[in-house]
Specification:
Helix content is 73%, strand content 0%. It is mainly α and 223 residues long.
Length: 223
């Protein structure tokens, strides 16, 4: 096993363990009022929770593929066995990055970082997204992401957006606290709400491209 691969593996182990533990804690522990912490199974409606769960699953799948590969470190073997798990890691990293930057640049200044980074959201909004982004940037640099891989990073937001707006079209917006527009995307009407999702899709692709470029740069520095 190459020494440089140890650190990313440790990161994946942390993610694979932390995500289910933190999510399970939200099923039994009620967060502090005003902190936007997910509570119970209703938390599964939030993109933050879903993206973190996908990140945890991606790390678990990658670790299993790593165990299956064993001690083989040949570049061709790595490309063959790690390509699909790494694509899933990239998609999940971009998904949690959307949460990370939304909180950092929008929700944090709006509501206060204290409320955004407390309890389970300290992990879901900050620590796990950071670990996931760092992990996919450093893992298996022998594998290069294609333009198609980068475009795939738009899928989480696209799927979530279709289901989010579709649910509202079927069941109506409702009224607080039982609204189906829990993110308030449709406060300015459907066109603006759809535009928000389109912008988030564009941001997802941009983040995916940035991660790919950083990986390529790191790979070139190794030679």
């Amino acid at each position: 096993m190459k020494k440089r691969s140890v650190f990313p593996i440790v990161i994946d182990i942390l993610i694979a363990i932390l995500v289910p533990l933190v999510w399970l804690s939200t099923l039994f522990v009620r967060g502090e009022a005003g902190t936007l912490e997910p509570v119970g199974f209703r938390g599964l409606r939030f993109f933050t929770v879903l993206s973190n769960l996908v990140a945890g699953l991606a790390s678990q799948i990658y670790l299993l593929s790593r165990i299956k590969r064993g001690s083989s470190t040949g570049d061709e073997e790595i490309r063959k066995t790690a390509s699909l798990p790494l694509k899933l890691k990239l998609v999940s990293a971009v998904a949690v990055a959307i949460t990370f930057f939304t909180v950092l640049l929008f929700l944090g200044p709006l509501y206060g970082y204290r409320y955004m980074y407390t309890g389970s959201n300290l992990f879901f909004h900050l620590l796990i997204p950071l670990l996931t982004m760092i992990g996919v940037t450093l893992t298996e640099l022998e594998v290069q992401f294609t333009k198609k891989d980068i475009l795939l990073t738009a899928l989480p937001v696209l799927i979530y957006g279709v289901l989010y707006i579709g649910n509202i079209l079927v069941n109506g917006i409702g009224e607080w606290p039982n609204t189906n527009d829990w993110y308030g995307f449709l406060n300015w009407g459907y066109p603006v709400g759809i535009l928000i999702f389109v912008v988030l899709i564009g941001i997802s692709i941009a983040i995916g491209a940035a991660i790919s470029k950083i990986r390529n740069l790191l790979q070139s520095l190794q030679h």
